[in-house]
Amino acid sequence: MGRFAYVNHRFVRHGEAAVHIEDRGYQFADGVYEVWAVFEGKLSDSAGHFARLHRSLRELRIPEPMSEAALKVVLAETVRRNGVRDGLVYLQVTRGVAPRDHAFPDPAPAPAIVITAKSVDLEAAERRAELGAAVITQPENRWGRCDIKTVSLLPNVLAKQAAREAGAVEAWYVDELGLVTEGASSNAWIVDQAGVLRTRDVQANILRGVTRASLLELAAEMNVAFEERPFTPEEAKGAREAFITGAGTLVLPIVRIDGANVGDGTPGPVAKRLRRIYIDHARRGAD
Ligand SMILES: Cc1ncc(COP(=O)(O)O)c(C=O)c1O
């Protein structure tokens, strides 16, 4: 089965998909995106991702490209045309095409929209989760609006590359107070020495992860003690457990931070349990 992309209201072959050279996403990173995990062809945590998409667009004053109902249809159709059973669907909306000028074009162009979908090997992901993964820390160097899911991701690109070169899957940003903010494409969590699940509060300059929010609800339902409170890299290295969350990684145990083992260097019981429970929730709630 070939790959297809949805580009400005048409399905085209992935290899031939293109946008205009004066798309403001290309020139200014003037756009937003969303990523949904797909289970059995359905979108997981779909309402949370739609809510964040609407908010990101509103914050940047980019018009909605189409109604949510219409978006759901084209997202589902992109998943179907690409034969994705388990995987990811990516949506990007930019302010559109206009002669290059930093301020918003007037009149406003139609927003430009791109949707792609790809399959993920769930068994390989499961094997990786069983081994656990490594993170490194990096100084926080992003702008002050990380709550908006923009395609302006150059600091994240550089942090991820540093992680890759260090044999890690993720980079955790550390702010000027010495506290972990989040990962380059995930939220950061620990189970501290008191056994309390901890992740940074969303008043901080971080993305309000949809997986993060669902996992906090699940933790509350399971009576797992948690606190939305930041931690330092040292606390994380000395924690019982660590893990990251995101639509791409779901819940992924972290077993090394800057080369130091977390706990005994193997995935912890809480992270493993939360991964199972989150995946069950994501599958059951997918629509
Ligand atoms: C910077 C950042 N933080 C956190 C997340 C996790 O968000 P979500 O759980 O909504 O995928 C992402 C996901 O892409 C991200 O890019």
Layout of secondary structure:
Elements lengths: L3 E4 L2 E4 L10 H5 L2 E9 L2 E2 L2 H15 L7 H14 L5 E8 L17 E8 L2 H10 L1 E7 L14 H12 L4 E5 L5 E4 L3 E5 L5 E3 L10 H12 L4 E3 L4 H5 L3 E6 L3 E8 L2 E2 L7 H17 L2
Pyridoxal-5'-phosphate binds next to helix 6 and strand 13.
Walk me through the structure.
The protein starts with a strand and ends with a helix. The longest helix has 17 residues, at 269-285. The mean pLDDT is 97. Strands 7, 8, 9, 10, 11, 12, 13, 14 and 15 form a nine-stranded mixed β-sheet that branches. Helices cover 31% and strands 27% of the residues. It is of the alpha+beta class and 287 residues long. A hairpin with a 5-residue loop joins β10 (187-191) and β11. It is built from eight helices and 15 strands. It binds pyridoxal-5'-phosphate. Pyridoxal-5'-phosphate binds at residues 35, 182, 185-187, 207, 209-212, 245-247.
Bound molecules: pyridoxal-5'-phosphate
Mean of residue pLDDT values? 97
Q: pLDDT under 50 segments (min length 5)?
A: none
How are helices and strands ordered from N to C?
EEHEEHHEEHEHEEEEHEHEEEH
Globally, the shape reads globular
Percent of residues in helices: 25-40%
Biggest sheet: strands, sense, closure?
9 strands, mixed
Structural Rg: 19 Å
Number of helical segments?
Answer: 8
Our measurement of the CA-to-CA distance between the termini, rounded to an integer number of angstroms, reads 23 Å
Fraction of residues in β-strands: 25-35%
For the secondary structure, the number of strands is 15
Secondary structure class reads: alpha+beta
